[in-house]
Amino acid sequence: MKTAIYPGSFDPVTYGHLDVIKRAAAMFDELTVSVLDNVNKIALFSVTERVNILKEVTKEMPNVKVDSFSGLLIDYAGEKDVHIAIRGLRAVTDFEYELQIAQTNRTLSKGSLDTVFLTTSLEYAYLSSSSVKEIARFHGDVSQCVPDFVAEMIYEKYGHKHR
Ligand code: PNS
């Protein structure tokens, strides 16, 4: 069975992530989207909230599972016996950071964990979870960036019911 993990912060998931999830799910028998429980990053949504959002947006995708992990990706992938990590590349600016992580993971895992990059569809190339949060925080319209229920959840986090 061909399996892969798509790790990330997903704080929150955007249409850009969803595009990568759909395309990766079509390439593998099973895709696990896994939320990093990162102690070094202050997140807007808890890991449980992020997992639940991801479960909701992938509920029509039978071969997509949602999980969370902490610690090193190579250890988590090793426990699951998965050898491919998926990452999306939006622009050249992502490349240096992603290349470093991919090479670190491949070296640390002694070749066991490789990374497959999917280039983000052009319509989502500008999207990032950080910009979505900033737009929503100041009452901007994020309806083109995230599903409606996610937008409402972000507005609520910032203390306003709607934009
Ligand atoms: O969505 P993000 O925040 O860009 O995702 C980054 C992620 C989760 C892929 C990366 O930070 C990660 O895998 N962290 C786990 C810790 C780890 O394995 N570090 C070693 C590689 S430098």
Question: What do you see in this structure?
Answer:
This protein has 163 residues and is α/β, with parallel strands linked by helices. It has a single domain (3-122), classed as 3-Layer(aba) Sandwich (Rossmann fold). 40% of the residues lie in helices and 19% in strands. It has 6 helices and 5 strands, in the order βαβαβαβαβαα. It has helices spanning 15-25, 47-57, 73-80, 92-108, 129-137, 148-157, and strands at residues 3-8, 30-36, 64-69, 84-89, 114-119. The strands form 2 sheets. The chain has a 3-stranded parallel sheet with strand order 1-2-3, with helices on both faces. Strands 4-5 form a two-stranded parallel sheet. Helix 1 links the parallel strand 1 (3-8) and strand 2 (30-36). The longest helix has 17 residues, at 92-108. The protein is globular, with a radius of gyration of 16 Å. The N and C termini lie far apart (44 Å). The model has no long low-confidence stretch (mean pLDDT 96). It binds 4'-phosphopantetheine.
Question: Topology of this protein?
Answer:
Elements: E1 3-8, H1 15-25, E2 30-36, H2 47-57, E3 64-69, H3 73-80, E4 84-89, H4 92-108, E5 114-119, H5 129-137, H6 148-157
Parallel strand pairs: 1-2, 2-3, 4-5
The structure holds 4'-phosphopantetheine.
The site of 4'-phosphopantetheine (PNS) has 9 residues, from strand 1 and helix 4.
The CATH C-level class name = Alpha Beta
CA-based shape: globular
What ions, cofactors and ligands are bound? 4'-phosphopantetheine
Task: Classify the beta-strand content into a percent band.
Answer: 15-25%
| Number of E strands | 5
